[in-house]
Design goal:
- Helices cover 53% and strands 15% of the residues.
- The radius of gyration is 19 Å and the shape is elongated.
- The chain has a domain of 135 residues: Rossmann fold (3-Layer(aba) Sandwich), CATH 3.40.50.
- By secondary structure, it is of the alpha/beta class.
- The strands form 2 sheets. It has a 5-stranded parallel beta sheet with strand order 5-4-1-6-7, with helices on both faces. A two-stranded antiparallel ribbon has the order 2-3.
- The N and C termini lie far apart (49 Å).
Length: 204
């Protein structure tokens, strides 16, 4: 009986220890910073914004919302002549279309915005945007969440589409509040798993 009890107790103790480390140490902030890489406010004439989450078939999710908000802020800095939003998903409207709504209601002219709404993953966004980006003149900037920069920028580089990365403080901002660190931790675990998968497939 003791042997049967010992392993569940050890498992619960390990989970408790992980929860304490995640909640009360800067682990998630360090992790997110490592995935973001050097923090450059890169500038260019074209801004590429990849979609993130959605809450429902026609409701934008947190990561998609904040990427949209920062796209608006970058546009207001001046110099951006074209914004390309990429990402499908959603039963009623693609996520990129929902993001377009955020940009337009925030004052970005509709003629500046272009939407690619078929991609269902970062990999598909890269492949669908590649022929568009290779024809562009000037510099193109990739704007996405801090934790997503590592995988997304390398996926574009692998296809010979160099973009200047511009991370936004997504995971880092949430990690500043201890109540949200566990959710950020799980998201970082998921993203790191995807990085491993992309590396195994030769996509980064």
């Amino acid at each position: 009986m003791r042997k049967w009890i010992r392993w569940p107790v050890r498992l619960l103790a390990a989970i408790g220890f992980i929860c304490l480390v995640v909640t009360f140490t800067p682990l998630v902030s360090w992790w997110a910073s490592a995935l973001a890489g050097p923090w450059w406010d890169s500038k260019g004439e074209t801004l590429v914004v990849l979609s993130g989450s959605n809450l429902d078939s026609d409701i934008i999710g947190d990561s998609s919302y904040w990427r949209s908000v920062y796209a608006v802020l970058v546009y207001r800095e001046g110099g951006v002549r074209r914004i390309i939003l990429s990402g499908g998903g959603g039963a009623i409207k693609p996520i990129a279309e929902l993001m377009r709504g955020v940009l337009e209601t925030s004052g970005v002219p509709s003629e500046v915005i272009e939407v690619e709404s078929k991609a269902q993953s970062t990999r598909e966004s890269v492949l669908l945007l590649k022929p568009i980006l290779q024809k562009l003149d000037g510099r193109a900037v990739l704007l996405t969440s801090d934790y997503h920069v590592f995988r997304a920028s390398r996926a574009f580089q692998k296809e010979n589409v160099p973009l200047l990365p511009r991370p936004i403080p997504d995971a880092l901002k949430r990690a500043a509040r201890w109540q949200k660190r566990w959710g950020v931790f799980l998201e970082l675990v998921s993203e790191t798993t995807k990085i491993g998968y992309y590396a195994a497939r030769g996509w980064i």
